[in-house]
Amino acid sequence: MAGESSEFGELHDELRAVAVDLLAKGDAGSHVAWPVLAQLGWTGLEVPDTLGGAGATFAEVAVILEQLGRAAASTSYVGGAVLGVSALNLLQPTVFRDELLEQVAVGTARLAVVVDPGFEITTSAGGLKLSGRAEFVPDAGEAERLLLLAGDPSGIPVIVAADVAELDVTAQPVLDDTRSFAAVAAADVSVTESSVWAFEGDAHTAVGALTDRAALAIACDSLGLSEAMLAATVSYTAVRQQFGRPIGSFQAVKHACAAMMVQIAMSRQLVGAAVDAVTDGRPDAGTAVSMAKSYACSAAVEVVGKAMQLHGGIGYTWESGVHVYLKRAALNRALFGSPAAHRRRLAQRYR
């Protein structure tokens, strides 16, 4: 990724090496438990060092996300750590927020974040009430606490911290077995003022930054799984023989692999540029994220589809594992904005 040549390049190499070593021990789709993520320090990468975290940036988180995508690993990292810590860092500092950041850093608290603005807070004689519903919230079923994006009585976006027991959380199975989603609903649930947390600075800008991070996290994952599928395809075509020679020596196969490599190179450039923009907090970060999300996630579906084709009959079997990547790539394409939605966003910016 862009930014790999920065002063943090050595740290990135170390993070990548640890991730590769851990994830190589399992098959595609293998589960990595939350305590393991915490022991490695991944859950606290963006938590300030004064609160027990590493004090790193999204650039370091992106390294982990890419490797999780390469392994198609099943974790609650996106919802519990990436979005959870991102949301908390965007809030005004309070004792409650800081305590939760400390708990996430050491792995004693597992979060999920509802970025869909489908909730609202109203005022009644009985106090503050929370109502609304959101579909397909990542990792909500495994979380102990939920951070819900909601509009306060004046319409300003805020975050409501609620225990899972206070809400209606219903699992929503999807085709991709490596991911976990749930619907979250609330019907006039009582909330206290201390559980309603305000964003630091302009609330709408903060919400945009949070949704951009969610989309970019998925783009990083798609880049990783694309790279894994190209590597697997090149390896397979080097040993699979037809007519007494490796099929990788055939011109048509070479061209197909080269096309995959070009798509991945484009994805890597766009994702790297978006990671740099988000990490630096640049005003054009939203544009960079939409470019990365729309291209990288579309390219991943095409790359995995081509990998399945080049694997021949074995690519369509359960044993090959290619289907794990195809289902994950297809889901990534739809998560946090489809390619069409992000392209509309880009068109509106340049209209």
From TrEMBL:
Keyword Oxidoreductase among UniProt keywords: yes
Cofactor list: FAD
Domain (Acyl-CoA dehydrogenase/oxidase C-terminal): residue spans on this chain: 213-349
Source organism: Mycolicibacterium komossense
Keywords, comma-separated and alphabetical: FAD, Flavoprotein, Oxidoreductase
Highest taxon of source: Bacteria
One Pfam assignment: Acyl-CoA_dh_1
Protein's name in the database: Acyl-CoA/acyl-ACP dehydrogenase
Similarity field: Belongs to the acyl-CoA dehydrogenase family.
Domain Acyl-CoA dehydrogenase/oxidase N-terminal: 15-83
InterPro entries with a match to the protein in the record: AcylCo_DH-like_C, AcylCo_DH/oxidase_C, AcylCoA_DH/ox_N, AcylCoA_DH/ox_N_sf, AcylCoA_DH/oxidase_NM_dom_sf
